[in-house]
Specification:
The chain has 79 residues and is mainly alpha-helical. It has one domain. It is built from 5 helices and no strands. Helix 1 runs antiparallel to helix 2. The longest helix is centred in the first third of the chain and has 17 residues. The radius of gyration is 13 Å and the shape is globular.
Length: 79
């Protein structure tokens, strides 16, 4: 089941990329990826691969920090 869910999500992202889908749509997809990984529908490795495919790091300044706050509610610096 993980592989079919992963392939379905990957295909949707590729279609979106070919249609130059906006950042907001990519963020919705990221939420779906997070949900799928949380529920075991895809592996964490597959989730990271799909997240990279979305290209959000290239579109959003300080993406890593924003991502961390989105998942945990706070930013924890490495210092």
């Amino acid at each position: 089941m993980q592989d079919s869910t992963f392939e379905d999500m990957k295909e949707r992202i590729e279609i979106g990329l070919s249609n130059d889908f906006p950042v907001q749509s990519r963020l919705i997809m990221l939420g779906e990826i997070f949900c799928a990984a949380t529920h075991g529908l895809i592996s964490l490795k597959q989730g990271y691969e799909l997240e990279d495919l979305l290209g959000l790091k290239d579109l959003i300044e300080d993406y890593g920090k924003i991502r961390q706050i989105g998942f945990s509610g706070e930013f924890v610096s490495a210092a």
